[in-house]
Amino acid sequence: MSRANICMPCRLAAIAAVMGCTAAAFAWTAGWLTPKRVDAPHIVNTFESNYGIHAGLRRNHAKGLCVEGEFESNGNGAKVSRAALFAPGETPVIGRFAIPGSNPSAPDASIPVRSMALLFQLTDGEQWRTGMNSAPVFVVRTPKQFYQQLLASKPDPRTGKPDTAKLDAFFSANPETLPFRQWLKAHPPSSSFANTAFWGINAFIATDTDGNTRAVRWEMVPQSAYEAESADQKRNADFLADDLAARLAQGPLRWHLVLTVAAPGDPTNDATQQWPASREQIDAGTLVLRQATPQRSGACRDVNYDPTILPDGLKPSDDPLLAARSAAYSVSFNRRMQEEAALAHAHGEAQQ
Ligand code: HEM
Fold first, then answer.
1. Consecutive H or E run containing 263
2. 54 an active-site residue?
3. pTM of the prediction?
4. What is the mean pLDDT of residues 118-138?
């Protein structure tokens, strides 16, 4: 039968069925099909109930800015992955720096973590999207724990801050959170996005040209030397954006993309654990960032940095956070895009 002979409602029904199966598969991998259901809309609703709805903005990592530049591959990454990105050459990048949390007005010094999200636009039309944080491990291992932590972090209406007793109770009930908390204690927050290392944290599966597969993780290692945030900076709620603008006015900023290759048996489904420091590392090239723009007008605004959008040569591992991230980012993205369209419409009407 030719494609023209398939009726339109049947086609739509088929597409809906495939999408439904994919969503169900994601929900299953993420461990959400449990009697007490914790799904992506519940997670995003909880972000919203904690710090309100800020139309057009991301439900997590709400405060941020867009950056642009390119990735200069040196060819070394091809040892583990056949992704076009790892062949020698340049790939344009649309990125975003942010701080976690749902409050777009949070003072920078109130959050100890920074994030870098990147979209690599490959020449063959494929994309690689990644969202990385400034710690090598994640605070929780499962989507359910992530949800429980969000509930425990709800600001107390009297103080506007999370109730420390509730958070402490969550941490004691979830000892997997210890490596992250210990890491934060030992690493004071950085003075700049530019001197921060960013980790992809979740494991991925790399396939080389011969079809061999290996589990990998990645890190962006800054060329600028780390410094802790200063007392002066802490008085400026937006010091990270101001510092970035000042540095970019002097010239581009650089990071090395370093792949860590797992040994057989290293866990791929536990983002709270680092692999041993002795694992092979591959410097795959240099990320060069040249300009920053506000997120309301920049190229990153309409990007969903879903970490499961990967080129041939990379695929998700069995880490349950990956499927959960993909589903939650999609809900957040759809809500903020609808709001963005409504804002643009209202703006257009106001101008008529
Ligand atoms: C179950 C676990 C997680 C959930 C439910 C979650 C949820 C979210 C949501 C809803 C967003 C907003 C997405 C958008 O509107 O575009 C977001 C952003 C982000 N998340 Fe997660 N997250 C999780 C785990 C992680 C992990 C493990 C990392 C780091 C490896 C991470 C890094 C980021 C980054 C970098 C952004 C900002 C992306 C940007 O700048 O646009 N998240 N997260």
1. none
2. no
3. 0.90
4. 96
